[in-house]
Q: What sequence folds into this?
């Protein structure tokens, strides 16, 4: 702050928000108190560009960016691109797009582990010279056999005793491309009897004659994750290197490398990865779903990818609120998918404009309404947000209502339209059903009503009441749309249950409705804009929309009380 200027109160929005309390935040608070990193907080989000980001990654993104922001720190985006065989530029682009969409910014701090290949190579030479690394000619299978088990110590590799000179020579030859894939590795010389298997001479470099998405064919040796990650953190002067619990056993190795190299030492901290019921989080398996055509792509709205979730209509705010609500711990649990949906509904309830749409249309003719007359009815855009104002919705003699909103033989507690029953048409009039027209097969084709002109706007001057209000769309003004309804992609809470996760796929996860009728205000709804279709749920415009052919995705259903009643009835 500039001391010569009188300090003015900060606007509320600029006051850094206090993030949710958790053990990592406590560690940072303690480090700030003791000055461990000179008051700095610098985190990184390190995705491997081998797939699209999913909702689990959102937890890590919110944590890394959220903690740094809270303490005036910085967060880097670093692509962990040490595996040339699975990585692609397509993934890099989508990851950047997604992090921005979630509301976070790495500013000018975009890095790639591959940027550090020359430095990592130098560090490997340093460890060889110090007698801490050696070239090993065992095959991958033999390395596994020699490693031992949790109860038995490993057996030293016969190549462990190679001289520094020989190791330097062989490693340089590996780099020069003289050895075929898999014929040799560079290994750290640590402790073949360590109770931690990761410390039993882990592989640092392997030979892979593969083209890398950034470095092309410049390298044919690639560092392992463990040899790359901590040193990348060190180069970037990361303070708190936050990762998921499966890396806890790798921490001693993380520490060993930076200590042996004598370089700046960041602190690795592990937390529980997010698991969600009915949701698959493995990128490998998600790739299978895409490749085998079980979904339309990585951004299929059923996918737990952030690209899919975004296309589904979820908001970044809802995802951030969800991530802040689930907590961070040292034990892995499983979170109810319903909690994510709760945050989505809560956010959309605040921001989504209400409109009327009929998904399964049934024609209604109001016999006593003048033919050719059109009235504009005033409708509230969002009862949660008065600033959203109102709009005009055309009303006329022929309308559509939901098939579900009419029953010829209404069960008990069914209060919507049925012969002789009066209901309110939202924002319009009271109408009474007077009869039905049938097709030759005897099915109800259209229903007939009369309206009470005195009830314009939806209230009777005599104070008489109706038990139900239903939505409608004027037939002459309706826009026709395709609407895609989604259910959970998996039938089992744990999609990995059983032999093959594909057996748990829900065959009814997508239901495509055509010929849906929307109120005309939706004519030019932009792609990805979100609405509440009154009484039906939240919906979002899909990028598949074309002029004259809007396509909507159902983002989330509203809580359906009728479904509950029906269930109760059935149970009787
Ligand atoms: P997958 O096993 O799905 O391939 P990954 O862990 O290999 O995931 P990365 O791209 O390496 O994916 O992940 C980037 C960061 O996101 C890592 O720090 C990782 O720990 C974190 N992350 C990945 N999945 C989750 C999850 N389900 N919950 C929280 N953080 C996660
Ligand atoms: Mg990974």
A:
């Amino acid at each position: 702050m500039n001391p010569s200027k009188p300090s003015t109160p900060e606007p509320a929005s600029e006051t850094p928000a206090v993030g949710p309390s958790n053990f990592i935040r406590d560690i940072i608070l303690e480090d700030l108190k003791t000055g461990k990193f000179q008051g700095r907080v610098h985190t990184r989000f390190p995705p491997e560009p081998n797939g699209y980001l999913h909702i689990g990654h959102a937890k890590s993104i919110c944590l890394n960016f959220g903690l740094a922001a809270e303490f005036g720190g910085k967060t880097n985006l670093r692509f962990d691109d040490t595996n040339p065989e699975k990585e692609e530029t397509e993934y890099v682009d989508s990851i950047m797009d997604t992090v921005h969409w979630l509301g976070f910014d790495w500013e000018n701090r975009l890095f790639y582990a591959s940027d550090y290949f020359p430095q990592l190579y130098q560090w490997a030479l340093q460890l060889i010279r110090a007698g801490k690394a050696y070239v090993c000619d065992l095959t991958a299978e033999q390395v596994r056999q020699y490693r031992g088990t949790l109860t038995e110590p490993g057996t030293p590799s016969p190549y462990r005793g190679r001289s520094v000179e020989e190791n330097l020579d062989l490693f340089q030859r590996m780099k020069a491309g003289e050895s075929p894939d898999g014929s040799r590795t560079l290994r750290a010389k640590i402790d073949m009897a360590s109770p931690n298997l990761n410390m039993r001479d882990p592989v640092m470099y392997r030979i892979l004659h593969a083209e890398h998405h950034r470095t092309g064919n410049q390298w044919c040796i690639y560092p392992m994750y463990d040899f790359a990650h901590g040193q990348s953190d060190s180069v970037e002067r990361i303070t708190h290197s936050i990762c998921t619990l499966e890396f806890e056993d790798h921490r001693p190795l993380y520490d060993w490398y930076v200590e042996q190299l004598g370089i700046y030492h960041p602190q690795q901290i592990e937390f529980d990865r997010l698991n969600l019921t009915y949701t698959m989080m493995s990128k490998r398996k998600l790739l299978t779903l895409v490749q085998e055509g079980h979904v339309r792509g990585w951004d299929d709205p059923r996918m737990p990818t952030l690209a899919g979730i975004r296309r589904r209509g979820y908001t970044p705010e809802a995802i951030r609120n969800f991530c802040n609500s689930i907590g961070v711990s040292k034990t892995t649990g499983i979170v109810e998918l319903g909690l994510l949906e709760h945050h989505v509904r809560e956010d959309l309830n605040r921001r989504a404009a209400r409109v009327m749409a009929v998904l399964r249309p049934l024609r209604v003719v109001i016999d006593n309404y003048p033919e050719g007359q059109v009235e504009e009815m005033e409708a509230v855009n969002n009862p949660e947000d008065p600033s959203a104002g109102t709009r005009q919705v055309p009303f006329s003699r022929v309308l559509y209502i939901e098939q579900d909103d009419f029953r010829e033989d209404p069960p008990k507690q069914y209060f919507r339209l049925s012969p002789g029953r009066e209901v309110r048409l939202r924002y319009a009039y009271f109408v009474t059903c007077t009869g039905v027209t049938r097709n030759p097969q005897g099915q109800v084709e259209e229903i007939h009503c009369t309206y009470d002109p005195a009830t314009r706007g939806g209230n009777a001057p005599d104070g008489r009441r109706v038990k139900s209000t239903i939505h409608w769309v004027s037939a002459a003004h309706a826009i026709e749309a395709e609407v895609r309804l989604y259910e959970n992609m998996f039938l089992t809470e744990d999609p990995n249950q059983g032999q093959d996760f594909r057996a748990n796929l829900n065959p009814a996860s997508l239901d495509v409705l055509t010929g849906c009728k929307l109120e005309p205000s939706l004519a030019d709804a932009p792609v990805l804009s979100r609405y509440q279709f009154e009484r039906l749920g939240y919906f979002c415009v899909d990028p598949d929309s074309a002029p004259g052919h809007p396509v909507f995705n159902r983002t989330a259903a509203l809580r359906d009380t009728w479904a509950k009643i029906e269930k109760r009835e059935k149970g009787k």
User: Anything to note?
Assistant: The pocket of magnesium ion (ligand 2) is lined by residues 48 (CB under 6 Å). Residues 1-15 have pLDDT under 50 and may be disordered. The domain at 357-474 is CATH 2.40.240.10 (Ribosomal Protein L25; Chain P).
